[in-house]
Amino acid sequence: MGGRERALTEVEANYKEMRRRWDKDVLTMGRILRAHLHVEYMTRHLQHVNPTLGDLDEARLSYAQRVNLLSSSDKSITSMIGGVRHLNRVRNRLAHNLDAVITEADKAVFLAQAMFRALRNASMDEYQAQLSVTHSTSWRLSPNWQALR
Known about the structure:
The protein is mainly alpha-helical. The protein has ten helices and no strands.
């Protein structure tokens, strides 16, 4: 094989490889990104709790630095820090490696944290409620909820 056939074969192989990398679980990846952004947003609450703290946005602190500021005597905060730090590792892995996936070990870290587990269970309860409404009325699930099925 040579010339045109070889070129077409290479183009097709490159396309298939690109599709393999592109066709990832974007719903889960989006949840990780959204959770990461939410934690960054939550750290802005520190300015309300400690009015003498300077502007965190102006300080241009990294996610890890913001998490370090969360360390406190508040047990509800300290119980989440391990999961919040792991969230950053997962987010970075997904952001910088096209072949990265969320592993069972990642899930275990999150679900070992009571707050993360409660949030997941609340989401599942909401999904179940939405599902029961769908079956009892003509109301339809949004495309986001349909993707979870």
